[in-house]
Amino acid sequence: MPEISVRGLEMPQSPIRKLAPLANDAKKRGIKVYHLNIGQPDLPTPQCGLDALKNIDRSILEYSPSQGFQSYREKLIPYYKKFNINITPDDIIITTGGSEAVLFAFMACLNPGDEIIVPEPAYANYMAFAISAGAKIRTIATSIEEGFALPRVEQFEKLINEKTRAIMICNPNNPTGYLYTRREMNQIRDLVRKYDLYLFSDEVYREYIYTGSPYISVLNLEGLEDNAVLIDSVSKRYSECGIRVGALITRNPEIRQAVMKFCQARLSPPLLGQIVAEASLDAPEEYYRDVYDEYVERRKTLIDGLNRIPGVYSPIPMGAFYTVAKLPVDDSEKFCRWCLADFNYEGETVMMAPASGFYTTPGAGKNQVRIAYVLKKEDLQRALVVLKKALEQYPGRVDDE
Amino acid sequence: MPEISVRGLEMPQSPIRKLAPLANDAKKRGIKVYHLNIGQPDLPTPQCGLDALKNIDRSILEYSPSQGFQSYREKLIPYYKKFNINITPDDIIITTGGSEAVLFAFMACLNPGDEIIVPEPAYANYMAFAISAGAKIRTIATSIEEGFALPRVEQFEKLINEKTRAIMICNPNNPTGYLYTRREMNQIRDLVRKYDLYLFSDEVYREYIYTGSPYISVLNLEGLEDNAVLIDSVSKRYSECGIRVGALITRNPEIRQAVMKFCQARLSPPLLGQIVAEASLDAPEEYYRDVYDEYVERRKTLIDGLNRIPGVYSPIPMGAFYTVAKLPVDDSEKFCRWCLADFNYEGETVMMAPASGFYTTPGAGKNQVRIAYVLKKEDLQRALVVLKKALEQYPGRVDDE
């Protein structure tokens, strides 16, 4: 047979999804699996979004415009305005999930061999999209001990060379829950201007910020009109991961023009998802508040619970609905596999994402896992009990001195 | 600002969609536009598919599996069996439209610089996906005079070199409506085996074959288990272009394994679209028959009508719902633009896709257009009247000697 492409071989498996076959096997054996691995909220989609589905009155499910429906793009304007993001419908390109927005941003802006600086741990699929585009991720380390704060500007500058073309951040951060401070955002802004880089910012978790600190969008950084690209998605804010509706937003018309060619090639973003997403913008304030309050509660439950398990440490995430926690194990991937394949406590086990997949530095994050707090409080509490038992029984337990 | 990527600059604009702004302007001026440019059928989606939408009883629109729902993949087995394609659910990967299936096939199988041989005229977006993957399309010319039949094997072999990694066909063909014969398919099979190439075959129009000739899927060619990749989509067979559900099917597990990594990176195909597509498999035989009969009628109307306009020539397409026709004009893109910007007949005009966008050979197809017969008979008849008038008035008219 002909050979698989180098890119096809190099593409990482998703650290979030690669253990899914083991989880399926466990379920077949009758074991209940608590899914702490994936950012799939169990909270309901807004009723207005679900109603819009039932009320679709079309006899043909036809293509939508490559850029997305005009009506939807117009309706997004007041939504962004609530976050002081002032844009026009023309600035918005609707994509098939935030995933496609990242891929198209990389495709349109980066040449093969170009480098993107990304603070690690980072959302693993950025690596995958970089490989798809032939670009190279250079990670800048952040540490659990420092709560994943951004390193000083000198650390960035050490990585910058003639191939450096972009910085990519996720804010609030997946997987760490870190929220960039005003000082950090200004530091990034200055770097981007100084070296004339692109700045891609994935801000899909803006609804979930738990401290008094402000959320600073890249679209609010002065002087970055030509450099900043916002990546967005409705997946997390409306519990609509399955409808595959995201957005790429930039004030730079040249980027939009290039991205639109990739959009035309894939014809259109999902019609049905756009209808649901557009209707979901009518969700009442209570919807946002209830969801927010729920996450506040879950965050407290999870983080308190984790830090009470001997040998476990989690910083307190400031946003999103993930945390990266340190476990007393030799290798978190081995541990996660063991939990699914060889362990259960009273017929139950936990599935987590090994954090090594969120790092590119070899060996980094080897005793860390990403945990999503997307399950209801009782399930989280029970999952914590199961995790505690698993850590007690795991043969590869390693305690710090 | 930083530079747009070379790929972003090289990406072609869609010949099908790039004139859309002119069409929108015409509509704003109150002109009715007959859309002959795009393969968006006006026939209804199956009622069972629409009903499934109304009956969705989920409170969370969550991710679906990266490979697509197991239930849907299982239900596809008897569908393919009707066409003598015998596969298992594991062989199928559900994609976000046929577009994503092409992109992922290229990404997983082709290295930057690799060459793919494609008979031209070809579906324009293959070029776009090849550029996305850094691969190079080498086209082999077919001609309107010979009804777009495949050239002899020697013509293919002239193009084959150490960079050649794949052949891509579309059967029945978009844009020409050509259906590959048994002899041609065997010729391609022998080439693929001799040079150990991948064979990608886009067969989304298999329902629409108007001659007694058999449809031969690549999955039915012997000895190509490791080489053949079928690209599919429900867009055309169920008038469901907007739901973005396609498939990549191959018996080669290594290809599937590589493709699945790209699938995991984009998380999942559209949930809602899969629900509709799965339900649409229950469409009664009458649905398929009615749609088929309608296209037979439209094909006759269009092709007869075209060939009756002085100076126009169209071969008789054997499948799909397009034809590539020769017009008595200096430059079909100029003509198509003129139809939208500067012409109307009794308040109406036509939009067609300039065929040059379906060729890579410079100058090829310059007096050709792709016409989709996706409008109802009366509209097609009226569009033919308008086209005839346009050709009479067009300042760039050029008649053959």
UniProtKB/TrEMBL annotation, chains A, B:
Names of required cofactors: pyridoxal 5'-phosphate
Chain ranges of the Aminotransferase class I/classII large domain: 33-385
GO biological process: amino acid metabolic process
Nucleotidyltransferase keyword on record: no
Alphabetic keyword roster: Aminotransferase, Pyridoxal phosphate, Transferase
Keyword Transmembrane helix: no
Highest taxon in the source lineage: Bacteria
InterPro entries for the chain: Aminotransferase_I/II_large, AspAT/PAT-like, PyrdxlP-dep_Trfase, PyrdxlP-dep_Trfase_major, PyrdxlP-dep_Trfase_small
Molecular function terms, GO-annotated: pyridoxal phosphate binding; transaminase activity
Family matches, as Gene3D superfamilies: Aspartate Aminotransferase, domain 1 (3.90.1150.10), Type I PLP-dependent aspartate aminotransferase-like (Major domain) (3.40.640.10)
Pfam family, one: Aminotran_1_2
PANTHER family: ASPARTATE AMINOTRANSFERASE (PTHR46383:SF1)
Family: Belongs to the class-I pyridoxal-phosphate-dependent aminotransferase family.
NCBIfam families, sorted: PRK07568.1
Protein name from the UniProt record: Aspartate aminotransferase
Organism: Prevotella lacticifex
Taxon lineage: Bacteria, Pseudomonadati, Bacteroidota, Bacteroidia, Bacteroidales
